[in-house]
Write a structure and sequence with these properties.
This protein is mainly alpha-helical. Helix content is 71%, strand content 1%. It has 21 helices and two strands. Strands 1-2 form a two-stranded antiparallel ribbon. Helix 8 runs antiparallel to helix 9, helix 13 runs parallel beside helix 21 and helix 19 runs antiparallel to helix 21. The chain is globular, with a radius of gyration of 22 Å. The N and C termini lie far apart (52 Å).
Length: 480
């Protein structure tokens, strides 16, 4: 009984430490729940019959001063709310409350959903809840909670959908996927895989898609719904081509010197290719290991590998796929697959980029890696310590590169011309970045995603005596 209590106290201490640092930073920089401010104002403009993608109404709402260190935008800047109408409809009820009250309610909601996601993931993978919560302390404590991102909700929806599909509850799985559609590019991959591989789910998937379309049209009208996909979404991707916090292939190609157009096209093509590969491989893994949960967890992870618009908080949505693959491969005695998946899990879980300007988190990273190795990967204490030291080595490398070359971030001033779309002023505000420093800091995360892809491919192609498969690279027939 003492060990779980001690672990819980350590996690609580880490959470309090992270929370104190965040509150201190928000007091000075006033960035706290900055993304939620845009979501709130998007819902506010929608409720009041205005265009939630237009700059002027968003800026009026976002520039109102806020207490408690809550974010208020600077003059001349409109922070976009780049969601389809059905997603903005979720924020409409929040917009009926005063912003401070809505912010507190939203923070409570994403905290609860993140804890529920950890519980669901622990149940899905049969791994200790405390170890998974330790991972969430750093990934969500540093990335998701400070900005008020909705990644915790999407993560819970994906894991709950996978668990429901494993139990054969198709309707519940599809319902959860509707909630994950708050991140459309992630949910699209999961919906497609479900439709392709699970024959009995097809009527429910069609109904869910029709429902989302109806809500989207009802929220702002057909012209606004069409404009989102044809005008707003391309404009938002273009505004963040060189964004310092981007992890997309578009950013990497642009950092290599390519034009905006070529960078965007590269990201778009990679998204389509990776989603198709993810859908195919997910079905093959589900057949090989006899676990339908792969159908819904693998495609979103592939969709986040490359692409035209990927933020670090979204990459945490690949954690369930890496953890599930590790657990199942270990159960089937696929040592190489489980080892690659374990390394991928650690590399994806840690926000290495944050080390450059927040070196205090290095100790927390070391503790998290030790906890993951000991509690999730089930290494002994000696090897867990070596894994922790390896993480310290990566952090040291990132810091040395940053000290040698600088951050290579190019700030841009915002002029007083707001423009028609919020993305016009946002494109002026988003800082550009390129060069070896940011590439080195992002490289561990990219390597983690690529290792996950490699582990999936190896698991399929390897002859597995324990599971009865003796065919290299089995190609299952698509359901009719």
């Amino acid at each position: 009984m003492r060990k779980p209590v001690l672990a819980a106290l350590v996690i609580a201490a880490c959470a309090v430490f992270v929370g104190a640092e965040l509150l201190n930073a928000s007091r000075h920089n006033q960035f706290f729940l900055g993304d939620f401010r845009a979501f709130y104002c998007g819902g506010f403009t929608l409720v009041h019959g205005q265009n939630p993608y237009a700059a002027a109404p968003l800026m009026r709402c976002e520039s109102t001063p806020a207490p408690l260190g809550l974010y208020a935008t600077i003059a001349g800047l409109a922070v976009p709310a780049p969601f389809p109408g059905y997603a903005l409809a979720l924020f409409a009820p929040f917009s009926l409350l005063p912003y401070p009250a809505a912010a507190i309610l939203w923070l409570a909601l994403i905290l609860v959903c993140s804890v529920l996601a950890a519980i669901a993931l622990a149940d899905l993978t049969a791994r200790p809840l405390l170890a998974i919560l330790l991972v969430f302390v750093i990934t969500y404590g540093l990335i998701v909670f400070p900005l008020g991102q909705l990644t915790g909700i999407v993560l819970y929806a994906l894991v709950a959908a996978a668990a429901a599909l494993r139990r054969g509850k198709i309707a519940l799985a599809v319902t959860c996927l509707c909630l994950s559609a708050l991140s459309p590019h992630v949910a699209l991959a999961a919906f497609l895989a479900l439709f392709v591989w699970i024959k009995e789910s097809r009527p429910a998937v069609i109904i869910a898609v029709v429902f989302l379309i109806v809500v989207d049209i009802a929220a702002g009208g057909p012209s606004q719904a069409l404009a989102y996909f044809t005008i707003v979404l391309p404009a938002h991707a273009g505004a963040e081509v060189g964004g310092a916090l981007q992890y997309s292939l578009t950013w990497l190609v642009h950092a290599a010197g390519a034009s905006h157009t070529l960078a965007l096209r590269s990201g778009e093509v990679s998204y389509v290719v990776m989603v198709c590969c993810g859908v195919i491989i997910a079905g093959m893994l589900a057949r090989r290991f006899g676990d339908r949960a792969f159908v819904l967890l693998i495609p979103p992870a592939f969709a986040l590998t490359g692409g035209a618009f990927v933020h670090l908080q979204e990459i945490t949505l690949a954690l369930p796929a890496a953890l599930l693959l590790y657990v199942v491969a270990r159960r089937h005695e696929q040592r190489a697959t489980s080892t690659i998946a374990a390394i991928s899990l650690v590399l994806i879980a840690i926000p290495w980029l944050w080390v450059m300007d927040q070196p205090w988190i290095i100790a927390l990273i070391a503790a998290v890696v030790f906890g993951v190795a000991l509690g999730i990967v089930k290494l002994d204490a000696s090897r867990s310590l070596r894994a922790s030291l390896a993480a310290l080595g990566i952090c040291t490398f990132v810091m040395i590169i940053g000290a040698r070359y600088g951050t290579q971030i190019i700030p841009k001033a915002v002029n007083t011309h707001v423009g028609v779309l919020a993305q016009e002023s946002w494109a002026q505000f988003v800082v550009n970045s390129s060069g070896i420093t940011l590439i080195a800091a992002k490289a561990p995360t990219w390597i983690g995603l690529l290792l996950l892809v490699a582990a999936c491919a190896y698991a399929i192609c390897r002859k597995d005596q324990s599971s009865g498969f003796g065919i290299a690279c089995p190609m299952p027939k698509l359901p009719t």
